[in-house]
Amino acid sequence: MKKLSLSILFVIVASLFAARAQAQVLVIANPDFKADSVSKADLHEVFTGSSTSLKASGHVVPVLLKEGPVHVKFLSEYVGQSPTGFVLCWRGAILSGRGTMPKTFESEAAVVDYVARTPGAIGYIGSGTAHDSVKVLAVK
Amino acid sequence: MKSILIGALAFGVAACACAQSPDDMNLQIHGYAAQGFLYTTHNDIFYANSSDGSAAWTEAVINVTLQPKPSLRVGVQARYQLLGSKGNDISLDWAAADFTINDDFGVRVGKVKTPWGLFNETQDLDPIYMWALLPQSIYDVTTRESDLAHYGAVAYGKHNLCAQCGNAEFDLWGGEQVVPSSDGQFDDLNASGNGPLNPLEYITFGGALHWKTPIDGLMLGASDADNRPATVTLQGGSEWFAEWNNLSYFGQYTKNKMMFAAEWNRQASVAAVTLTGQPVSAANSDPRSWYAMATYKLTSKLTAGAYDSQYTDHAAPLSTDRFTKDWTISGRYDLNEYLYIKADEHFIDGSALSLDPVRNPNPTPVYRLTALRLGVSF
Questions:
Q1: Is residue B306 part of a domain?
Q2: What's the pTM?
Q3: DSSP secondary structure letter of residue B104
Q4: Are the CB atoms for B220 and B191 separated by under 8 Å?
Q5: A72 touches chain B (CB under 8 A)
Q6: Is B325 among the domain residues?
């Protein structure tokens, strides 16, 4: 009984660590992206539609995940918004004629594929997703 | 001018879209619908029987946007609106082609939103802000048709200032404003049987500057529009408007869960009404208005806020008809990214705004307004 309890406890703790590791966010960009890093302020500007370019890299194309823990964590850490607030921010731009919703994908693999073949594309994935075809940016 | 702009817009879409699929053109459809409820302790507000409780406050918007290439975006937005006994029809919000010249400059042409003040471009978009009603001192829902959009163009851009200076965003616009004869500014004339026979049309041009300061989250700005003289034919006469300006100074500060904003506006005008068999009467006004607001995100779904809003017409005789002061407390709950509920309680003193003369021949100056909204956006 004691062994069973310890095993269950071990599985629960391991799951928590696994979930935390999966939720670690990587910012990725097209391989031709000039810069190796990006600031939090720049990510905020690009992903809220305030800017379509970065000084070191020129024109940028933001790419979104539709939902999920990586999406929530990215928005919280780098955009400072909840998923609902983020969507409403973009709807304001769309409904006032100032913008369109960035490309949005259901899966991280689809984000990687799109970023790899789109010049200027910048997106985010979990660290557990294969990403050999894209560049990982350090966030300052 | 309107038909030329819309024809150019249609040509632009056709030229770019003929060989592309909807997916290639990034076709997007968005919109919202909102149902409101109004209750006033005295008076009837917004052309509705609000003293008995009124649900005659409904909006629905549909937006279709295409982006056939990265430098070109084309869109159109239509609206159904009911406000009390007014509206109950479908109108064109905007229809525009947006050309991005480079990352720092672009031009939008067609029927375009006019970017003055802090909230003019979004004042009619209920899902976007937390209040059931924006401060009516500047964003009066009964006269917003005269402010929202114009036929013409907007040139927009941004410029990075020095390393420690932040950056500046600008808008320059020009074109023709068309004010329908049912607009709230003609309420008194319509009530007396001398309302406009046609829309009021005038040339407008202006500029706005937003300075994103080096202080993270702080934006300061100003806008000014110059509106050229115009005349509108009335039933039994005419009304002439001298050149007038729409001047705003505004600021907004956002940090973590808090937002503060304030705006001051002045729209002084000289006008004269000439009716058959009557001497010319002056219709001057000098409204100077301001508001200060604050919101706080209590949870990821619940936001609370308050504002103080004041409107005073310095050209009007001294009376409670000269001003409206409005203290408001408000809350918004987002059930999810689509569905939301809002509730405002307004403590109002003054009868200058929002009370049409037909329903309110002798308005009570001190009253409360409860405004509720249920909306869905996509």
A1: yes
A2: 0.89
A3: T
A4: no
A5: no
A6: yes
